[in-house]
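== Fold encoding ==
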Amino acid sequence: MLNGNRLRSRVRNVTKAAGGCSLILTGKNNPELSLSNNQEFSAMFREMAPDDLPQVFLVRTATIENAVSMEKLEEYGITEDSLTKALQSHVKGWVYEDSDKITGFVMGDESTGEILVLAVLLGLEKQGIGSSLLLRVQEWLFSTGHDQLWLKTTPDPSLRACGFYQRHGWLATGEIEGEDEIFILRRESGLSSNKPKY
């Protein structure tokens, strides 16, 4: 059981439009993201569908670090319509869902080999959800023929995103774009046998 009153969101985000991956803290009390007290839940990983996008946007916009509003996402061209089209074309995603609430998600771009976004709510981290989501998108992108994947993340080692990716075999390139650094993962180091080191 989860106590919805104490569930706040911490999200990892890797997105071109919003400036890369960084640790994102959700400080807003958003009842649409909370589970009610004493609510039983069943959890599962599954492929993302266009119908999931409203919940994905709720998680993304309820952030403190690397905060972005729906209006700003729209300025970047990131809307439910644009993501629906992308999911029907070159982007694929997975969600972690419990009690019909999306509490984690990941998206990757087949055309570029980029991990676009990875997010997990606070209270559910260090349970393997982020790692499982990351492995799903990595394996899919490698299966499409990429030998190297990439993402943008904060180079700040005091933030969790940097260490998370390094524990999963991602390498910092030293190439900075804006405030973010490009990290890469080569096929030989990114297969499911690569377990994170905590």
